[in-house]
Amino acid sequence: MASKRYRCFFCDEVFTNRRTAWEHFGEQNCESDVPACVDPLRTDEKARMTALREAQEYAMKCQNEAQAAEDKAGDVEALYAELRRYFGEDCSSVWLAGDRYKSALNRISDLEALEKVQECLQP
């Protein structure tokens, strides 16, 4: 299988490595950024464009992580809202919810036992 080649229409340079092609072209084949060879104002254009593209990639990664963190924070808040709905407004932890659930089960068990005793005592 032949390796993939990337050719720049501006400078006619051919890239056989995907990373070096990305450093030259940027994202989406020149749609969002111009190739590194088009802007001749800097002598160290290749290093500047590489640094810029890596910074953009890092910024996108950070934005995605921030969005994921916001989603998780929303999930946690929804969990606490559900705990407060089921176990009272002052319920602030899963441990407290579990304790209240066990207490409720014990009360139900006590009421069932009391009901059985009352059935036995009735003639």
**Tally of helical runs:** 3
Instruction: Specify the structural class.
Output: mainly alpha
What spatial form do the alpha-carbon principal axes imply?
rod-shaped
> Order of strands side by side in the largest beta sheet?
1-2
| Average pLDDT over all residues | 80
Report the portion of residues in β strands: under 5%
Helix content: 55-70%
Q: What is the strand tally?
A: 2
Order of helices and strands: EEHHH
Q: Strand count, sense and closure of the main sheet?
A: 2 strands, antiparallel
**What's the domain count?**
2
Radius of gyration: 32 Å
> What ranges have pLDDT less than 50 throughout 5 or more consecutive residues?
none
N-to-C CA distance: 93 Å
Structural summary, described in words:
By secondary structure, the protein is mainly α. The protein folds into two domains: 6-88; 93-123. Helices cover 64% and strands 3% of the residues. The chain has three helices and two strands. Strands 1-2 form a two-stranded antiparallel sheet. The longest helix is centred in the middle third of the chain and has 43 residues, at 45-87. The model has no long low-confidence stretch (mean pLDDT 80).
